[in-house]
Amino acid sequence: MTLLFVVNPISGGVDKEPFLKEAKAICTNYGIDFQIFKTSGSEDDVKLKAILKDYNPDRVVSVGGDGTTLFTSIGLLNTDIPMGIVPLGSANGMAVELEVAQKPIEAFKDILMSNIIGDLDVLCVNDTHYCIHIGDVGINAAIVNGYEKDENRGMATYAKYFIEALSNVEPFKMKIECNTSMHELQGVMLGICNARKYGTGVPLNLDGNPMDGVFELVILEKINANILISAGLSSFDETFLDSQNQTVLSTSEAKISFNEPRLLQLDGEVIGEFESIHVKVLKGAVKLISTKRNGYL
Fold first, then answer.
1. Looking at the domain covering 129-282, what would its CATH class be?
2. 246 vs 53: which has the higher pLDDT
3. 21-48: average pLDDT
4. Structure-model confidence comparison of residues 274 and 150, the more confident one
5. What is 2-113's CATH number, 3.40.50.1240, 3.40.50.2020, 3.40.50.300, 3.40.50.10330?
6. How many CB atoms are closer than 10 A to CB 147?
7. pTM for the full model?
């Protein structure tokens, strides 16, 4: 077996070296050949493509948070090389969705031992951007935008931008074309969901399944701020959605337009402002190393 570790050294402010030291020792003990690719922020996509082509590993280990998982998935598009996830980021939402072991070394052992390979969907947005977890337009995109620009991190900083966004929230209109129908709707947030919950634990899409060949558009007409605040911004259950007026559209492709440019975030990264968004699912685009814990299989 040959392994390629794709490591984001700075994701979540978590030191990856203790995990890598232990993982290297396991590989050495069992005669597993490996290479380590660390992202630097400079042409990482080009460099990853090159090493995948030259080294052609049997398996890829994504070490980081949701952003690292997305980056690795994009690199593996149009290949048959399976990927496993080691959760070591600030938000490990996709790892939680897929029931990945939360102890990094246990997740790594699962990647080595499992013969269960599933098909993970990827969402393609405007032909040039990708999403495997959750994206949105509206209130949460504004929160993420403020959080990204702040040099401080943690829940206190998130709460600051959460409260600021709530105070400025205004519904906006959108037109959604999908499943041969046109929907004219209004809301404070449009969720683009390949999964069910944000990394913070906030549920958004009870119908989500990142391995079923479709995605959901969730339009929230309002946000119940009292429930969010009383929940402490960290612990939520699915009753949260009971108090929200929402519309859910399940589809494999959609065209969305707004009356003015709106801020879009995908998997925790602000992409920019768009008047129109085209989303389509790339069914089973990434081979995922998983276990029987994964309820989507």
1. mainly beta
2. 53
3. 97
4. 274
5. 3.40.50.10330
6. 18
7. 0.87
